[in-house]
Amino acid sequence: MVWDILLQAAAGFILGAAVGYGVGAVIDALSRVFAELWKNLVAATREIWGYVTEATQYLLANIAQFLDNTWSEIEYYLRQEFGYRREWWIAVFREGREVFLGFIDPTSSQGKSVIGSIGMLEQGTDVQLPTKQNPIITELKLS
């Protein structure tokens, strides 16, 4: 499926760079909408764990950057699945070392979603991500 290919293309970019943590540089390059998404992802992580490691902030910044850079392609596939939406719920979670990204239709009473793997965390990475049972979820509001 083309959707899986799109998400897999991001895997090396997002998960491979866990050293250096240039969070500020990544955030500064984001558009307003995706910078806000990053802030909300960090806030949701803080609610779950009580704190957020720098590695987690960096991973979430790279996810926001990936979404910012590829949103038009992602939105094209989401429109095919759900129709046009100005708001999405974005979910991030892990199963073992594998990281998943989900897009949930907030207007659906059944919580319809598209979820795909974006790759594997490096062994020993200090990234805090919950499991599928309690994912990081935040709203993406498009202008």
Structure description:
This protein has 143 residues and is an alpha+beta fold. 47% of the residues lie in helices and 21% in strands. The chain has four helices and four strands; from the N terminus they run H-H-H-H-E-E-E-E. It has helices at 2-15, 23-28, 32-49, 54-82; strands at 87-95, 98-104, 113-120, 136-141. Strands 3-2-1-4 form a four-stranded antiparallel beta sheet. Strand 1 (87-95) and strand 2 (98-104) form a beta hairpin. Helix 1 runs antiparallel to helix 4 (54-82). The longest helix has 29 residues, at 54-82. The termini are far apart.
Percent of residues in beta strands: 15-25%
Report the uncertain regions: none
Number of helices: 4
Our Rg estimate from Cα atoms comes to 14 Å
Task: Please state how the strands of the largest beta sheet are arranged side by side.
Answer: 3-2-1-4
Overall mean pLDDT: 83
Give the tags.
143 residues; alpha+beta
Topology diagram in text:
Layout: H1 2-15, H2 23-28, H3 32-49, H4 54-82, E1 87-95, E2 98-104, E3 113-120, E4 136-141
Antiparallel strand pairs: 1-2, 1-4, 2-3
Helix pairs in contact: 1-4, 3-4
